[in-house]
Amino acid sequence: MVSAVIILISSILLYFTFTFDIVPPILNRGIQPATFPKALLILIIALTLLTYFISLKNPWKNEKKLPNSFYITLLSFVVFITVSKFLDFFLGIALLSIIVSYFWGERRVAYLIIVSIIFPLIVFIFFETILGLRFPPGIITNLYYG
What we know:
- The protein is an all-alpha fold.
- It has helices at 2-17, 35-57, 68-86, 89-103, 109-130, 139-145.
- The protein has two domains: 1-62; 66-146, no CATH class.
- The chain is flat and about 55 Å long.
- The mean pLDDT is 88.
């Protein structure tokens, strides 16, 4: 049921992305504005379908109470939003990746540090280089942008 709702909402949103205006080439930085939302929604639909078919073979356990890691993950998103807004987006991503990885079971400090460095770098390279988008000012981004 949850999968059907996610696919329905994503499909409706995907439909609306086809109504976005096309930016003239002279104003276009990177890709067209509708391209990223389309790709993201298609990815959400594909992953939801994959999850649904996997759950047919291995049904989910019905939990009476959600694990503490769920609530910590929700709280870590609040921390991410706060840090991203007031300090730096990449500092927020690094903290989010460390907190979520740790509370979902990763205890090896070296891996936590690697994840907190590699994940923000991948996000930066993807959005800055491939999509041609500039990030808002912050502690780390100001070092790069000067």
